[in-house]
Amino acid sequence: MITDGTGIPLAALLTGGNRHDVTQLIPLIEAIPPVRGRRGRPRQRPDQVLADRAYDHDKYRKLVRAKGIRPVIARRGVVHGSGLGVHRWVVEGCFALLHWFRRLRIRWDVHDDIHEAVLSLGCSIICWRRLKNHSIC
Predict the structure, then answer these.
(1) A single GO molecular function, which one (predicted)?
(2) What's phi and psi for 2, nearest 5 deg?
(3) What pLDDT is recorded for position 134?
(4) Residue 22 falls within a domain, yes or no?
(5) Which residues 6+ apart lie within 8 Å of 55 measured at CB?
(6) Which is the most buried residue in 73, 117, 127, 129, by most CB within 10 A?
(7) Distance from first CA to last CA of the chain, Å, rounded?
(8) Using CA atoms, how far apart are residues 34 and 44, in angstroms rounded to an integer?
(9) Is residue 69 part of a domain?
């Protein structure tokens, strides 16, 4: 899952249970829909990507830079306290919001397409609730 700075899910992919997270970094970045804003060409990608030590590999840093995104990834072997944990907690908060949906907390579905549909529905409900709470009426 990839979120914006406030914890709103931008894209989510479903993989097998034993897959490493770093293998899904580039597909997640490519799954982000274009952002509409001011008049002109919509922005296709975020400015930077924050990630934890699991994503620390030069190959993936180069791939992210090739997309025009600045990678802010914690280095392995460096002492903790880099300050990235302050910003990365928003993804964990989004996972916590998804765990409010019982079908996503424990996977009971045998078919992955049903589980992916429930995941998309859960992300949509999170976005809708956030928009509903912050709408100016």
Answers:
(1) transposase activity
(2) -125, 135
(3) 76
(4) no
(5) 21, 22, 25, 71, 73
(6) 73
(7) 31
(8) 5
(9) yes
Question: Does 52 share its domain with 77?
Answer: yes
Strands (E), the chain: 2-3, 9-11, 48-51, 70-73
Q: What is the pLDDT of residue 124?
A: 92
For residue 86, the model assigns a pLDDT of 60
Whether residues 105 and 71 fall in one domain: no
Coil, strand, or helix at residue 103?
helix
E strand or H helix at 129, and its extent?
A: helix 112-134
- Give the total number of structural domains in the chain: 2
What is the residue range of 79's domain?
43-86
* Block mean pLDDT (10 aa), the chain, length 137: 86 83 86 73 74 84 90 78 63 86 79 88 91 73
Quick one: pLDDT at residue 83? 60
Q: CA 6 to CA 9: how far, in whole Å?
A: 9
Q: Are 9 and 96 in contact (CB under 8 A)?
A: no
The whole-number pLDDT of residue 137 equals 53
Asked whether 69 and 48 are in contact (CB, 8 A), the reply is yes
